[in-house]
């Protein structure tokens, strides 16, 4: 009968005696915060953006290993995007519909880390939650000898014992490990198991440092600026050419993470509605003196030479933002362009 049809907006559950309209299909239990699935388009993850050969090679390697079942070891300095690479492997592989769990092995002590991975009493650990999915163990070089032995058994047998000598549990988990240390050197020092390293590095991906792919900085800056504007509700339109050149020259010891944090801080502290210029850079990035460039004007110079020096210093100070330079100099934009051409300023 039409009154019994579960379809349409008038058929929700009505009390204990009513009929339910397929509740199992209309809702699902929430996913734990630590077990969020990988992003739908993992290639768009910030650290994987860019057109450099170095990052293109990483995307190619991810594509090659994603469809396999082997463990993967991702090497790279802190902040290069090892976690983003691990999520991309998961998102583009056959386990994409299952759970991805990331565990920071350097954040917790040995006992806490074992509980986080293997569980504690009635509480499931990361491995059980990621059954049929992926576990990313970042900072694997910090694992204790006992944890290394347990991880080796997991990779060999697909099983582990709960802490305290509990029952053995079998799981189907892909393990991806990340490290910023030379694990081969740690093997030689007796601090890491060679057999575990061989198992983990069945496939290996090396994340390039940002200084090795500086040509990707403009696209990364554009993405980080857009994200920071949205996050902080600002309206910064762009960065000036001078700022971009300074960012490309910086060695970035903290890599992509440091660049993102730098852009975020600049957006927060700068007035909205204008481009970010050299004055908005953190002091460490402004170069020697860390202050505005001074015009080199001295007695004996002609008026033309003094005007040229002042224009050059002003342009450098605002990162070659010509409308802002004209405003600071108190002249019209057309006048500034004419003077730049007249004095041969580049």
If you had to describe this structure to a student in words, what would you say it looks like?
- By secondary structure, the chain is α/β, with parallel strands linked by helices.
- It folds into three domains: 176 residues, Rossmann fold (3-Layer(aba) Sandwich); 72 residues, Orthogonal Bundle (Helicase, Ruva Protein, domain 3); 41 residues, Arc Repressor Mutant, subunit A (Orthogonal Bundle).
- The protein is 41% helix and 9% strand.
- It is built from 14 helices and seven strands.
- The strands form two sheets. The protein has a five-stranded parallel beta sheet, with helices on both faces. Strands 4-5 form a two-stranded antiparallel ribbon.
- Strand 4 and strand 5 form a beta hairpin.
- The N terminus is likely disordered.
